[in-house]
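Project outcomes to date are best conveyed with an example. Our students and postdoctoral researchers have been running inverse folding experiments weekly, and each run begins with a structure described purely in C-alpha coordinates. The record below, which covers 169 residues, was selected by the lab manager from last quarter's runs and is presented without edits.
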Protein backbone atom coordinates (compact mmCIF):
# COMPACT_ATOMS: atom_id res chain seq x y z
CA UNK A 1 0.00 0.00 0.00
CA UNK A 2 2.73 2.50 0.91
CA UNK A 3 4.65 2.03 -2.39
CA UNK A 4 1.41 2.67 -4.31
CA UNK A 5 0.80 5.88 -2.37
CA UNK A 6 4.37 7.03 -3.00
CA UNK A 7 3.81 6.50 -6.73
CA UNK A 8 0.57 8.52 -6.53
CA UNK A 9 2.35 11.33 -4.71
CA UNK A 10 5.14 11.23 -7.28
CA UNK A 11 2.62 11.41 -10.13
CA UNK A 12 0.86 14.34 -8.46
CA UNK A 13 4.11 16.23 -7.93
CA UNK A 14 5.27 15.51 -11.50
CA UNK A 15 1.98 16.86 -12.81
CA UNK A 16 2.26 20.03 -10.74
CA UNK A 17 5.92 20.65 -11.61
CA UNK A 18 6.10 19.70 -15.27
CA UNK A 19 2.63 20.12 -16.70
CA UNK A 20 1.31 23.18 -14.92
CA UNK A 21 3.17 25.53 -17.28
CA UNK A 22 1.51 24.11 -20.40
CA UNK A 23 -1.51 25.92 -21.80
CA UNK A 24 -3.38 22.65 -22.38
CA UNK A 25 -2.99 19.00 -21.31
CA UNK A 26 -5.14 15.90 -21.81
CA UNK A 27 -8.30 16.07 -19.69
CA UNK A 28 -7.60 12.49 -18.61
CA UNK A 29 -4.36 13.63 -16.92
CA UNK A 30 -6.11 16.43 -15.06
CA UNK A 31 -8.74 13.98 -13.81
CA UNK A 32 -6.04 11.48 -12.85
CA UNK A 33 -4.40 14.20 -10.75
CA UNK A 34 -7.69 14.80 -8.92
CA UNK A 35 -8.05 11.04 -8.34
CA UNK A 36 -4.50 10.84 -6.95
CA UNK A 37 -5.16 13.81 -4.68
CA UNK A 38 -8.32 12.15 -3.34
CA UNK A 39 -6.46 8.89 -2.71
CA UNK A 40 -3.75 10.72 -0.79
CA UNK A 41 -6.32 12.64 1.24
CA UNK A 42 -8.02 9.35 2.08
CA UNK A 43 -4.88 8.45 4.03
CA UNK A 44 -5.43 11.48 6.26
CA UNK A 45 -9.13 11.22 6.90
CA UNK A 46 -11.55 8.79 8.46
CA UNK A 47 -14.30 10.10 6.22
CA UNK A 48 -13.23 8.52 2.95
CA UNK A 49 -16.71 7.08 2.48
CA UNK A 50 -17.99 10.66 2.36
CA UNK A 51 -15.84 11.55 -0.66
CA UNK A 52 -17.50 11.03 -4.02
CA UNK A 53 -16.00 11.50 -7.47
CA UNK A 54 -18.30 10.99 -10.43
CA UNK A 55 -17.17 11.26 -14.03
CA UNK A 56 -19.76 11.34 -16.79
CA UNK A 57 -19.16 11.36 -20.53
CA UNK A 58 -16.17 10.75 -22.75
CA UNK A 59 -13.04 12.45 -21.42
CA UNK A 60 -10.71 11.05 -24.05
CA UNK A 61 -9.24 13.22 -26.81
CA UNK A 62 -10.04 16.44 -24.97
CA UNK A 63 -7.74 19.02 -23.47
CA UNK A 64 -7.96 21.44 -20.59
CA UNK A 65 -5.71 23.98 -18.98
CA UNK A 66 -3.81 22.28 -16.14
CA UNK A 67 -4.43 22.96 -12.47
CA UNK A 68 -7.94 24.26 -13.01
CA UNK A 69 -9.70 21.68 -10.78
CA UNK A 70 -7.18 21.15 -7.98
CA UNK A 71 -7.52 24.49 -6.13
CA UNK A 72 -11.26 23.88 -5.80
CA UNK A 73 -10.75 20.26 -4.75
CA UNK A 74 -8.12 21.29 -2.16
CA UNK A 75 -10.50 23.87 -0.72
CA UNK A 76 -13.29 21.31 -0.52
CA UNK A 77 -11.11 19.03 1.61
CA UNK A 78 -9.85 21.88 3.76
CA UNK A 79 -13.29 23.38 4.38
CA UNK A 80 -15.36 20.21 4.00
CA UNK A 81 -13.58 17.37 5.75
CA UNK A 82 -11.00 19.12 7.90
CA UNK A 83 -13.17 21.96 9.18
CA UNK A 84 -15.05 19.95 11.77
CA UNK A 85 -18.31 20.23 9.85
CA UNK A 86 -21.13 17.99 10.97
CA UNK A 87 -21.85 15.28 8.39
CA UNK A 88 -18.75 16.28 6.45
CA UNK A 89 -18.71 15.42 2.76
CA UNK A 90 -17.04 16.28 -0.54
CA UNK A 91 -18.86 15.59 -3.80
CA UNK A 92 -17.04 16.12 -7.09
CA UNK A 93 -18.65 15.66 -10.50
CA UNK A 94 -17.09 16.10 -13.93
CA UNK A 95 -19.49 15.94 -16.86
CA UNK A 96 -18.30 16.12 -20.46
CA UNK A 97 -20.25 16.24 -23.69
CA UNK A 98 -19.35 17.40 -27.19
CA UNK A 99 -19.97 21.06 -26.43
CA UNK A 100 -19.02 21.62 -22.79
CA UNK A 101 -17.33 20.41 -19.65
CA UNK A 102 -18.98 20.96 -16.28
CA UNK A 103 -16.92 20.62 -13.10
CA UNK A 104 -18.82 20.73 -9.82
CA UNK A 105 -17.55 20.41 -6.29
CA UNK A 106 -19.66 20.75 -3.17
CA UNK A 107 -18.67 20.29 0.43
CA UNK A 108 -20.08 20.66 3.89
CA UNK A 109 -18.60 23.37 6.04
CA UNK A 110 -18.60 24.09 9.70
CA UNK A 111 -20.95 26.80 10.89
CA UNK A 112 -18.09 29.03 12.01
CA UNK A 113 -15.93 28.82 8.92
CA UNK A 114 -16.07 31.08 5.94
CA UNK A 115 -14.22 30.70 2.70
CA UNK A 116 -13.11 34.32 3.00
CA UNK A 117 -11.48 33.57 6.37
CA UNK A 118 -8.87 31.35 4.72
CA UNK A 119 -5.25 32.11 5.57
CA UNK A 120 -4.42 32.62 1.89
CA UNK A 121 -7.72 34.33 1.07
CA UNK A 122 -8.43 32.49 -2.16
CA UNK A 123 -5.09 32.96 -3.93
CA UNK A 124 -5.48 29.61 -5.72
CA UNK A 125 -8.98 30.49 -6.88
CA UNK A 126 -7.86 33.94 -8.04
CA UNK A 127 -5.11 32.27 -10.08
CA UNK A 128 -7.63 29.88 -11.63
CA UNK A 129 -9.91 32.81 -12.52
CA UNK A 130 -7.03 34.60 -14.25
CA UNK A 131 -6.02 31.46 -16.12
CA UNK A 132 -9.60 30.87 -17.27
CA UNK A 133 -9.89 34.45 -18.52
CA UNK A 134 -6.62 34.11 -20.42
CA UNK A 135 -7.22 30.69 -21.99
CA UNK A 136 -11.03 30.54 -22.19
CA UNK A 137 -12.11 34.14 -22.82
CA UNK A 138 -15.89 34.17 -23.20
CA UNK A 139 -15.92 30.36 -23.12
CA UNK A 140 -16.43 29.68 -19.42
CA UNK A 141 -18.74 30.43 -16.50
CA UNK A 142 -17.67 30.13 -12.88
CA UNK A 143 -20.18 30.20 -10.03
CA UNK A 144 -19.07 30.06 -6.41
CA UNK A 145 -21.88 29.75 -3.89
CA UNK A 146 -21.74 29.59 -0.13
CA UNK A 147 -24.31 29.31 2.61
CA UNK A 148 -24.21 28.35 6.28
CA UNK A 149 -23.81 24.63 5.58
CA UNK A 150 -22.26 24.18 2.14
CA UNK A 151 -19.76 25.60 -0.30
CA UNK A 152 -20.28 24.87 -4.00
CA UNK A 153 -18.37 25.59 -7.19
CA UNK A 154 -19.72 25.09 -10.70
CA UNK A 155 -17.34 25.65 -13.59
CA UNK A 156 -18.58 25.34 -17.16
CA UNK A 157 -16.11 25.41 -20.04
CA UNK A 158 -17.20 25.46 -23.66
CA UNK A 159 -15.25 22.92 -25.67
CA UNK A 160 -13.27 24.81 -28.30
CA UNK A 161 -10.64 23.81 -30.83
CA UNK A 162 -8.01 23.44 -28.07
CA UNK A 163 -10.23 21.31 -25.85
CA UNK A 164 -11.18 18.82 -28.56
CA UNK A 165 -7.83 18.45 -30.27
CA UNK A 166 -7.12 14.90 -31.28
CA UNK A 167 -3.87 13.35 -30.10
CA UNK A 168 -3.27 11.35 -33.28
CA UNK A 169 -1.16 14.05 -34.93
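After processing, the design step wrote out the following sequence:
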Amino acid sequence: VVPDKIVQLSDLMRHIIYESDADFIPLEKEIEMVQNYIELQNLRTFASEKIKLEIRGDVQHKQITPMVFLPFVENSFKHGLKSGAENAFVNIRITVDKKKLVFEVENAKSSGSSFADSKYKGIGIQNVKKRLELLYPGLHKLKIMENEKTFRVILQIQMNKHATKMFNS
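Helices lie at 2-19, 27-42, 70-81, 123-135. The chain has four helices and seven strands. The training component of this project remains on track.
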